[in-house]
Structure formats: structure tokens, C-alpha cells
Design a protein that fits this description.
The protein is α/β, with parallel strands linked by helices. It is about 35% helix and about 20% strand.
Length: about 550
């Protein structure tokens, strides 16, 4: 019996394919038209893995590793191959757990609990095994099982983080992926086989190692490993604190929520942050030459609340802090540079009147009285409507802005007069031992909730603008983070369980036909891992209040 033929449209071209033809077979025909590897496909607007087959007339749009979705699929698949290679090299009986801990440089920091230490010789064997799998072109297979069976399966495999995670899943089915006989769970789609996973490098680092992988801007090039020692220390310290509290994964957090008292966890986490802020204030107070505290960090890090809380701690030490926003030094709207699309580029350094900013700060340092500007965002004009300032012996300016770590912003000021703080929400929680939570996801959810509450911005609009926000961070903030005198982690171990209550309704309200729905669907699936909790026990001065409301600061 002849198989049915289906019309498949790719761009402006329509071709006939036999029923059962995989999207991967079709992708191979078109790969020569793309510089980077095709790893997924949109079939009639729905994201699909390449081993899926043609079952009706459809329109296809290929996804390559030069896209955010594509490179994340590559990285996720690489993690599966990495874990498989470690078990192959060491033997399952000698490995208790492989952990994909957090992002470092352009890769992931990983640790191995087992009989052998992570050495260069160990990593050489793991890399050789990974390259053998690439050469062997082993299929990455997928099977769907009932959630109850998944719980039993992961108990049998000794993957107890996953067993715990799935005890809280409401969905009835779970997708498992395998390379040969090794089976695992991953949050998201995979490439079809190991031959796609050519580009990586392994570096020993601290007590584990880093698997370095390409970025979407250069998907076939492994960037050099550039250790970020300060950032790594903060991430490791946060992870160790999570271990100490026995909350390493989402399953652990859910256990805490359902079986114990979350109010104590909230208070302990808030106390830890308050102690960190107090320590920073003491560092600053112990440096009498410091007159300018410069605070920078990516979007939705909680910079404003942090600055208020730091000011309170400085006052407790007898100092007189004055909060200042660099945004008040924007050039007038008509003088703002434009980006390549012809839109005003408010995030570039040239959007700031650097000369005036430096002159004002230098004059204050010399003891002069200065009237500082404010910026009227409605008119796009600078205004002068504040009382003049003069720095006394105990006065100090706490300055917040995205360029504050870049010395080009404060080029007239001596280093001894500055104290630079980098703040970001670096979540210490992972979904399970092999599925990390990207820090950008926590910040995106924070921003989505805050923008919907305070700015009337829909979740769809926030998602649509997020890539642009991220590009600005990559250009203006992350290159300077290691130049900070101190780092502060604003992530709260419990916050995603709280944000779930606020984020889900606005995400469910987004139309399924819109371009952003792929990300909406991913975020809803992500939030489904969490058992939600009320915000009633969260203190009014918490950083989280900046986003969910009900705080004591006017932010």
C-alpha cells in the first residue's frame, strides 16, 4: 500500500514528502543553505525535535545553533553526553553523582562525587570518550512514560533528585532521553544524535571542572576559558549555603514547603542577606577615603532595594549616605545616540553626560556645593529642581547605574575614592543534579511580575524586549563584573515558589499564536516544577518586595 504524500513548505518552496519522512531528513537537504547546524524545527509554528515525522501538510522553519533556542538545545544535549561519558569512564558503581552546578565563563561548572578525583588525566579520558561518541553518531532516543514509572525508574538509577522532583509533578507523562542504555531526564528538547556535539572543551577548575561550549554568536567556536574568580566564589558560597540548608534542588525546596516550616527558611535567608549588606557597609566605613559607592548589575537584580538597605546600614555606622541615579545624567533626548535599528540607545555609555557627571562628583569631592540634575523621562530633558548638595566628613554618595563598574564613567575620580559593587540574582537552586536553573530565568520572571504590576507592561512585551535587554547587559555590565570591589547575590532560595503565584496568571493570558509563546510555554513548564507559597511571611524590606510589591521602600 502506497504511503501518502504531503506538501511541505520551506520558505517559498513547496516539496512533496512521503508520510513518515523525518524532519531531520528534510533538514539534511537544506543544511547547505545554513552556515550553522539545524537542530530543531518549527512545524506550523510549533517547536519540534528533528526525529519527529511528517504526518500532514505543513510549513517548516528550521532552528539553528545561532539562535537562543538552538544553542540551549546544543548545551542541554552536551550535558547528557558528558554525564554518560563520565559514567562510561569511571563505571556506574564508582560515581555517586554528577552535578551540573552553575554557569562559569562560557560553560558550566561541574562536580563529580565518587571514588576518583577530578584531574587532568580524568578529564582527558572523559573528553576522549565524548569524542568517540561524536564519531559514533549515537542516536539520542526519547521515550514517554507515566510519571509514577519515572519516579520508580529514577529511584532504581539512584537519581534521587529526579525521583523527588517528579513526586510533585502534576503532569501524567514524562519524556526521558537516552544514549545507548544510559537514560536521563532533561528540561527541554535534544539534538537527534551525538554527531551534532562536536564543539566543547574541558578544563579542571577548583574542586571540579568546566565544560566550555560555544555561544550563539559563534556556534562552531569554543571560546577561551576565562575564570571569573570573584563571581565563582559568590556562586560557590551560595551553593554551599543551599547544601547546608539541605535545599539544593527544586525537589528539596518542595519538600521543605510541604513538610516543614517555610517561614523559618524565609527568615534565615533574609537574615543572611542582611548580614551580607551589613558586612559591605562595614567594609566601606573602614575606608575613609571612599566617597562614592558605585552599584551596578543586570536587569531585575534588585539594585534599588539593595541601595536603600545599604544606605540604612551605612547610617547605622554613623555615615550620611545620599542615593544618586546615573539615569539623571542622561543627555537630552535629541542628543541620545541611536542603535543600528534607528532606535534610541539608552544603554550605551554615550547616552550619559559623562563630563557633567565627573565634574559634579569632582566638585563635591573638593567640598564645593553642587546642584545635581534630575531627568524628566516624559519630556526627555534634564532639569534642576533639587536642593544643592555638599559633602561633609560623614557624607557618602551611593550611585546606581548600569555603567557603574566601568571606569570610563568615573574617569576623573581616583580609585581610592570609589567602592564598586556588582549585584546580580545568582540562584543557588537547580531543578535537579543535571538541570540547572539559568539566572536569567529568575530575573526575567522578576521583571515580568514587576513590569505588569507597576508599568502596565504585559508579560508578552517583557518577553519580547528581553533579548535586547540581555544584549545590553552583555555589552555594558558583564565585561566589568570582575572589576568590582565586592559582589552581592540578591537571589533568594525560596523566591521562585513565590513568583510562581504572580507569574502564572499573566503568562496564561498570552495568546498561543504569538511569536513569544514558545518562551511562554517553557516558563510555564518551568514554574510547574514548584509548589507555590504565599508572600505573607516575606519581610517588607526584602529584595523580593521590589518586584511583588508591599515593600517599605518607594521603588
Amino acid at each position: 500500500m502506497a504511503k501518502e504524500m504531503y506538501k511541505v513548505q520551506i520558505g517559498d518552496e513547496v516539496k512533496l514528502y512521503e508520510e513518515g519522512t523525518t524532519y531531520e531528513e528534510i533538514a539534511r537537504e537544506y543544511q547547505h543553505q545554513y552556515e550553522d547546524d539545524i537542530v530543531l524545527v518549527f512545524a506550523d509554528g510549533k517547536l519540534q525535535e528533528l526525529p519527529r515525522t511528517c504526518k500532514h501538510n505543513c510549513k517548516l522553519k528550521f532552528v539553528t545553533t545561532s539562535s537562543a533556542i538552538g544553542i540551549e538545545t546544543y548545551r542541554r544535549s552536551m550535558c547528557l553526553m558528558l554525564v554518560k561519558a563520565i559514567y562510561d569512564v569511571e563505571g556506574h558503581e564508582n560515581v555517586r553523582k554528577v552535578r551540573i552546578d552553575f554557569s562559569v565563563s562560557k560553560g558550566y561548572y561541574c562536580t563529580v562525587e565518587g571514588e576518583s578525583a577530578v584531574t587532568e588525566a580524568f578529564l582527558k579520558k572523559v573528553k576522549e570518550r565524548m569524542l568517540q561518541m561524536v564519531e559514533a553518531c549515537i542516536p539520542i532516543k526519547k521515550r514517554t512514560i507515566h510519571t509514577d514509572e519515572a519516579i520508580e525508574t529514577f529511584n532504581r538509577y539512584g537519581m534521587y533528585d529526579k525521583e523527588r522532583l517528579f513526586r510533585y509533578r502534576r503532569v501524567s507523562k514524562v519524556n526521558l532521553y537516552s544514549i545507548n542504555a544510559f537514560e536521563d531526564y532533561y528540561y527541554g528538547y535534544m539534538v537527534p544524535n551525538t554527531s551534532y556535539l562536536k564543539y566543547f572543551e574541558l578544563y579542571p577548575y577548583d574542586e571540579g571542572f568546566v565544560i566550555q561550549m560555544p555561544e550563539k554568536k559563534a556556534p562552531k567556536t569554543v571560546p577561551p576559558f576565562e575564570p571569573q574568580h570573584q563571581l565563582f566564589h559568590v556562586l560557590k558560597e551560595s551553593a554551599e549555603w543551599g547544601d547546608m540548608m539541605d535545599i539544593k534542588t527544586v525537589g528539596d525546596l518542595n519538600d521543605q514547603i510541604t513538610k516543614r516550616d517555610m517561614s523559618e527558611v524565609i527568615l534565615v535567608q533574609e537574615a543572611l542577606q542582611e548580614k551580607k549588606i551589613a558586612d559591605l557597609a562595614e567594609q566601606i566605613a573602614n575606608k575613609p577615603s571612599v566617597k562614592f559607592v558605585l552599584v551596578a548589575g543586570p536587569s531585575s537584580s534588585g539594585k534599588t532595594t539593595f541601595s536603600h538597605r545599604l544606605c540604612i546600614q551605612l547610617r547605622a555606622l554613623g555615615m550620611n549616605p545620599h542615593p544618586i541615579a546615573v539615569d539623571n545624567y542622561f543627555v537630552n533626548r535629541e542628543n541620545t545616540p541611536k542603535d543600528e535599528d534607528g532606535n534610541y540607545d539608552f544603554e550605551c555609555l554615550e547616552a550619559i553626560d559623562i563630563e557633567l557627571f565627573n565634574q559634579n562628583l569632582a566638585d563635591l569631592l573638593e567640598g564645593k556645593e553642587v546642584t545635581l540634575p534630575s531627568f524628566n523621562f516624559k519630556t526627555g530633558k534634564r532639569e534642576y529642581n533639587t536642593e544643592p548638595k555638599k559633602l561633609g566628613a560623614q557624607d557618602i554618595l551611593v550611585i546606581e547605574g548600569i555603567h557603574c563598574l566601568n571606569d570610563a564613567l568615573t574617569y576623573k575620580l581616583s580609585a581610592e575614592n570609589k567602592f564598586k559593587i556588582y549585584i546580580s540574582a545568582l540562584t543557588q537552586l537547580n531543578i535537579d543534579e543535571h538541570n540547572r536553573i539559568a539566572t536569567t530565568d529568575g530575573r526575567l520572571l522578576r521583571r515580568m511580575v514587576r513590569d505588569a504590576r507597576t508599568r502596565g507592561t504585559s508579560a508578552q512585551q517583557t518577553i519580547a524586549m528581553w533579548p535586547s535587554v540581555r544584549r545590553g547587559e552583555e555589552a555594558n555590565i558583564f565585561p566589568y563584573q570582575e572589576e568590582a570591589d565586592a559582589m552581592f547575590n540578591s537571589a533568594l532560595i525560596y523566591e521562585l515558589a513565590v513568583l510562581k503565584q504572580y507569574a502564572e496568571p499573566i503568562l496564561f493570558g498570552i495568546d498561543k499564536d504569538c511569536e513569544e509563546y514558545v518562551e511562554v510555554k517553557r516558563l510555564l513548564k518551568f514554574l510547574d516544577y514548584f509548589v507555590g507559597i504565599s508572600a505573607e511571611d516575606i519581610p517588607k524590606n526584602s529584595l523580593l518586595r521590589e518586584f511583588i510589591g508591599g515593600g517599605c521602600f518607594h521603588v
